[in-house]
Amino acid sequence: MKSNFSDLIQYFRTIAAQHVDIGHTTTEKHFYRFELDEVLTGLKKVNYPALILEGYRYSLLDKLSDNVMKERSGAFMLLGHLNDIGDYDAMHQLWDDLEMICDDIIVRIKSDKRNPVAKAIRDFDLGSVNVALIANENDKNYGIRCTFTISSPLSTDVNPEKWNYTANISH
């Protein structure tokens, strides 16, 4: 079952809405995509905790066989805000809280991998997950960044409906 970036966006938007500690709604936004226009306009007024989905990049893995794999590398961030960046106890508590939310999301993804409706994460590779604490003292945002890989087979069958074999361009 083929999936695309829009499917991944919808999946993580649903995660943000269904996780009680994030609480994304249409009136109180806590889910963001890390795209230039949304960063420049929408992230000036962020509701915390924020779940931010980054765009992914992909590469192809070909082991000289017919089984070509599409390896999509992506990430999401969970952000919180501190008023006093010198309050290290509050900073550590925020990181602890966000780590628990991140763990909840990973456990949910593991469960949803078996759900045929959640096609965006069916090929989510749990062994690829890496998590790092992040901090931006300028805007007083602290959080956690989770990188992941979604590996799925890529069909190498040419779709003849996508090609006009009679077209020729002469110089």
What is the strand and helix layout of this fold?
Elements lengths: L4 H14 L12 E4 L1 H6 L8 E5 L2 E5 L6 E14 L6 H25 L11 E13 L4 E14 L17
Parallel strand pairs: 1-2
Antiparallel strand pairs: 2-4, 3-4, 4-6, 5-6
Q: What's the gist of this structure?
A:
This protein is of the alpha+beta class and 171 residues long. Helix content is 26%, strand content 32%. It contains three helices and six strands, in the order αβαβββαββ.
Structural commentary:
The protein has one domain (5-137). Strands 1, 2, 3, 4, 5 and 6 form a six-stranded mixed β-sheet that branches. The protein contains three helices and six strands; from the N terminus they run αβαβββαββ. A hairpin with a 6-residue loop joins β3 and β4. It is of the alpha+beta class.
* Secondary-structure element string: HEHEEEHEE
Distance between the termini: 41 Å
- How many DSSP H or I helices? 3
Helix percent reads 25-40%
Q: Domains counted in the coordinates: how many?
A: 1
Keywords:
171 residues, 6-stranded mixed β-sheet, elongated, alpha+beta
